[in-house]
Amino acid sequence: MRLIPTNDELNTLRQEVLDFCEKLIPETTKGLERQGTMSDGDSVEFYRQLGQAGWIGRHWPEQYGGKSCSHLETFIVDEALGYARAPLSGYLLSVKVFGNSLMIFGTEAQKAKYLPMITSGEAILCQGFSEPSAGSDFGSLRTSARLDGDNYVINGHKIWTSSAEVATHMYLAARTDPDAVKHRGISTFILDMKTPGVTVNTFETLGGGVINEVFFDNARIPAANLVGELNRGFHQSMKSLDLERSAMDRIGAARRALDDLSKYIHKDGTAPDGGRLSDVPAVQEKMAELYSQAQVSRTFGYLIARHLDAGTGTSNEFSYGKLYIGLLSQAIANAAVDMIGTRAIFEYGSELAVNDGLLTALYRASPALTLVGGSSEIQKSVIATRGLELPR
Ligand SMILES: Cc1cc2nc3c(=O)[nH]c(=O)nc-3n(C[C@H](O)[C@H](O)[C@H](O)COP(=O)(O)OP(=O)(O)OC[C@H]3O[C@@H](n4cnc5c(N)ncnc54)[C@H](O)[C@@H]3O)c2cc1C
């Protein structure tokens, strides 16, 4: 594996992804255009073409359909995809949450079967961790997996299940030992979404996308679909969540929102006196502050990539990046709506909408950005207790 690609190689890679997206996004993302963070949406067609072009799971070994490249190169791809406003929800869950966990905890047979299905764009994974009584408190989950012969029988209810409406499989966490204390007795599984007894309900969100709840009614999955050790799912899932928190796509998306805002404020008539907002000192100061913070968030992202490549890094380092980009995305969305003013009420499709209504849509989507993948309060708690070793 080449661990240190040159800056020229990384810039070429970034440009290749941007060119790929520019060609494909208009025709493969119909219906998603109005979403504030299109990266929270899914286009099966875009995902399939992403796989066919070899952009999915490049850091995995070639025997699993990857290119054995560094995590840094994958992070550059993710950042460019986020910048291009590509629909990424299923991609991120398939690669960062499921695939990377399978690389660590999966059997050889599971890796050989599922990773090539992901890299080719054939399999899309969703993540079935959160439940009505188990979000931040993941150890309280109640969905049960009872062994019956060669199968586990699944019963329960998941909520907040992004991409379940398009997913072919779910990375599922369920309770396998009801008598164990809450953080023990949880295991993780691969579940085929076509399994009888699985029902998906889809809801529209404030940000313009969709989210799901999933019910399991005696859904039977092969015992061979257990991922990792029986009853060690809580500890394994903490690793999956760490991997989910390396939010390079959001860093790219935040930078894109800032660049879009920057273009807007340079136009005549954007300031209350008819001039340009870009001439207003308070606006210049705000833009400088947000661009500097965007640079800091990139540095966090690249640091995490270096850690992954070197096999180092601890949970609190992933949490720094996740906390920072969640808050920064909200700050950008708030600043955009402040600067756009009353025209922010016009949405995608209106000729009066600024930037096609996308910055305003980002504002509506942004409350979720400090919740998804673990809330900001939980990131602070990880940093305080694991990073700073403050008392629990
Ligand atoms: C857009 C979106 C997509 C998501 N996609 C998925 C998905 O695909 N799969 C999946 O499994 N989950 C998903 N989630 C769920 C997400 O992981 C949870 O929303 C998150 O973990 C918070 O859990 P909760 O919603 O139950 O809130 P709660 O845990 O009930 O928390 C409510 C509030 O209390 C605070 N809080 C809770 N405990 C503490 C504490 N100990 N100390 C301080 N403050 C605390 C939280 O920070 C939060 O502000 C998604 C969420 C969103 C918003």
From TrEMBL:
Keywords carried by this UniProt record: FAD, Flavoprotein, Oxidoreductase
Domain Acyl-CoA dehydrogenase/oxidase N-terminal intervals: 8-122
Superkingdom of this protein's organism: Bacteria
Pfam family for this entry, one: Acyl-CoA_dh_1
UniProt keyword Oxidoreductase present: yes
SUPFAM superfamilies assigned to the protein according to its UniProt record, in alphabetical order: Acyl-CoA dehydrogenase C-terminal domain-like (SSF47203), Acyl-CoA dehydrogenase NM domain-like (SSF56645)
Record-annotated Acyl-CoA oxidase/dehydrogenase middle domain positions: 126-218
Required cofactor(s): FAD
Acyl-CoA dehydrogenase/oxidase C-terminal domain ranges (all copies): 231-386
Family statement: Belongs to the acyl-CoA dehydrogenase family.
Name of protein: Acyl-CoA dehydrogenase family protein
Organism listed in the record: Colwellia maritima
